[in-house]
Amino acid sequence: MSKLPNISTSIFTVMSKMAAQYNAINLSQGFPNFPVDERLTDIVAKLAKEIVHQYTPMSGYPSLLLKIAALINTSYGRTVQPETELLVTAGATQAIFTTITALVKNSDEVIILDPSYDCYEAPVLLCNANPVRVALNDDYTPNWEIIEKACTSKTKMIIINNPHNPTGKILTESDFESLEILLEKYPDIILLSDEVYEYITFEEKHISAHTRKKLLNRCVMVSSFGKSFHVTGWKIGYLAAPEYLMKEIKKVHQFLVFSVNSICQIAISEYLDIVSIVEIGKLYQEKRDYFRQLLKDSSFKLMPCEGTYFQVVSYVAISNENDVDFCKRLIVEHGVAAIPISTFYADGKDLKLIRFCFAKDNATLEEAAKRLCAI
C-alpha cells in the first residue's frame, strides 16, 4: 500500500517529457540553459586532480561553512555559528525534507501557503502529519487573518517561500510584522523559510527571515547555491537554524545523505572569494526585462514579477481551457512548454495562469517569444 497514494508524477516531469517528445522549447522546468561562470568551472577543473574526492565532515566542508557564515553576515547583518547553526545539504529539496522529517511528528499540522512548490507536502505526509493548505489571495499576497484561523494547538510549522515560486511575489515589511504577531500568539510554531531565490530579486528588496530578530530562535532558513550560481545539477544547498533545532535536523541528515558532494563544496568555497553576489540579481533582471519586452505585443497578459526567474502570464484572452490542457496544447501546437499554476494548489484552483522560466539564453527566449506572439 502506498504511503503517498495521492501524489503522482510531478507536473515538471510531465511537461519536460512532453517538451522532449514534441521538440518544444522548454520554459517549464526551472533550470538555466546558459553557461556557468568560467571562473567556477576552472576551479572545478583544477580541483578534479587534487585530493578532494572523499567524504567531507557531516555538517559541510569547514571552509565553506565559514564562507556561508560570512555571506549571511554580509547580506543580512546576522552572525551565525558555522559549527552549530549551519548545514550544507544535497540541494534545497533535501534541506526541506530533512527539516520536516526531523521536526514534525505524528498528528502535527503544517501550514502550507498555496500556490506552493510540490516538495513541501510529501515529507509532512510521510511523518503521518497533516498538511493544512491555505490559499494566498488571488494577487498572491498572504491573508494573515485566514492563515491565523488555520493555526491550532496542533500546528507545528508554517512554511513560507520568499521570493515565491511560482508567482515571483516577495513578502513585505508588513507581511513580516503580521507573521511575527501571529507567531507571538503561537510560541510553539516553527517557521520554515524557503529562500532559495533570495539573490534573484528586482525593484523591491528581498526581506529575509535572517533580518527578523523576533524569528531567529524559531526559524529554519533554506538557501540554494544551485539557484544562486545557476548550477542546479550540483544539488548544493544549505540550512541555517538555531542550535537546538539544528541538532535535530543533523540527526536525520547524517542517515539520509551523511555528507554532500565534496568537490562541489570546495569549488563553491573558493568561488565565494571572487564572485559578486549582487551581480546575480542584475543578470536575471536583464533576462526578465528582455523576456517581458519580447512578449509585450502578445495576447498574454504579463503578471508582476518581483523575484525568482519565473514569469507568470494570463492566457484568458486566448482560451477558456483549463490551464493543464492549455499547457499541453501549447507544447503540441506551438512548441513551447510552460507550467500550469493550478497544479501548485491543493484544490487545483485555476485562474488561467501559466509560468514560464526565463533563465535561458537570449536565442531561446527570442524563439519562444516568436512562437508565443503568433498565438
Model description:
The protein has 375 residues and is α/β, with parallel strands linked by helices. The chain folds into 2 domains: 11-30 and 277-373, Aspartate Aminotransferase, domain 1 (Alpha-Beta Complex); 38-271, Type I PLP-dependent aspartate aminotransferase-like (Major domain) (Aspartate Aminotransferase, domain 2), CATH 3.40.640.10. Helix content is 40%, strand content 15%. It has helices spanning 11-21, 38-47, 62-76, 82-85, 91-103, 121-126, 144-150, 173-185, 225-228, 243-256, 262-271, 278-295, 323-334, 362-373, and strands at 25-26, 86-89, 109-114, 130-135, 155-161, 190-194, 219-224, 237-240, 301-302, 310-314, 336-337, 339-340, 353-357. The strands form 3 sheets. A 7-stranded mixed sheet has the order 2-8-7-6-5-3-4, sandwiched between helices. Helix 2 crosses helix 11 (262-271), helix 3 (62-76) crosses helix 11 and helix 5 crosses helix 10. The model has no long low-confidence stretch (mean pLDDT 96). This is Methionine aminotransferase.
Write the layout of secondary structure elements.
Blueprint: H1 11-21, E1 25-26, H2 38-47, H3 62-76, H4 82-85, E2 86-89, H5 91-103, E3 109-114, H6 121-126, E4 130-135, H7 144-150, E5 155-161, H8 173-185, E6 190-194, E7 219-224, H9 225-228, E8 237-240, H10 243-256, H11 262-271, H12 278-295, E9 301-302, E10 310-314, H13 323-334, E11 336-337, E12 339-340, E13 353-357, H14 362-373
Parallel strand pairs: 1-11, 3-4, 3-5, 5-6, 6-7
Antiparallel strand pairs: 2-8, 7-8, 9-10, 10-13, 12-13
Helix pairs in contact: 2-11, 3-11, 5-10, 12-14
